[in-house]
Write a structure and sequence with these properties.
By secondary structure, this protein is mainly α. The protein has 10 helices and no strands. It folds into 2 domains: about 100 residues, Cyclin A, domain 1 (Orthogonal Bundle); about 80 residues, no CATH class. GO terms for molecular function: cyclin-dependent protein serine/threonine kinase regulator activity.
Length: about 200
């Protein structure tokens, strides 16, 4: 169970999925198991179905055969690609049936607002505030994107607004490298409240 979100990130990259479809797959997976007992269904089958469904939602369709082969290689690194035998077709049918189950459980609400576009906007703004040397010597941007990607291992995407997650990962990335936003000490309010007025960071 605990390995399934990692399966998304690994399988999604190998399938050539963009970051938003992978994020949607993770959100579908987490939302499904918020509604259903964790022990009721095979998490890896739900993971594969979530990838398949996310590809449709985000208009980056994937072939079930590719999902099966990549997932099989993730779970069994030394194995050969599955033959097109009865086992393969049973697994393919299971993915399709599980997709329908996921849609029913989630009441067909499988579109999500992700933090990615907000983080991109915030990064560009902060980059313009900082001097070029401060920005270039600290991998704030790379770290913020990595933190955002890792946040999808858990259910943060369901618990918090997209803007708040984007601000949080950027704030953490800045803190990690000791980068201060110019004139922050003299400002009437923290820099992040320019973007999200209702955000409080201790």
């Amino acid at each position: 169970m605990k390995h399934s979100p990692a399966c998304f990130l690994s399988a999604g990259v190998k399938l050539g999925m963009r970051s938003i479809p992978i994020a949607t797959a993770c959100a579908i997976y987490h939302k499904f198991f918020c509604e259903i007992d964790l022990d009721a269904y095979d998490p890896y089958l739900v993971a594969m179905s979530s990838l398949y469904l996310a590809g449709k939602v985000e208009e980056q369709r994937l072939r079930t055969r590719d999902i099966i082969n990549v997932s099989n290689r993730y779970l069994h690194p030394d194995s050969e690609p599955l033959e097109l035998d009865s086992r393969f077709w049973e697994l393919r049918d299971s993915i399709v049936q599980c997709e329908l189950l996921v849609l029913r459980v989630l009441r067909f609400q499988v579109s999500f607002q992700h933090p990615h576009k907000y983080l991109l906007h915030y990064l560009l703004s902060v980059k313009n505030w900082l001097n070029r040397y401060s920005w270039q010597r600290s991998p704030v941007s790379i770290t913020a994107w990595a933190l955002l990607r890792d946040s999808y291992h858990g259910g943060l995407c369901l618990r918090f607004q997209a803007q708040h997650i984007a601000v949080a990962v950027l704030h953490l990335a800045l803190q990690a490298y000791g980068v201060e936003v110019p004139a922050e000490a003299e400002a009437e309010k923290p820099w992040w409240q320019i973007y999200t007025m209702d955000t409080e960071i201790p």
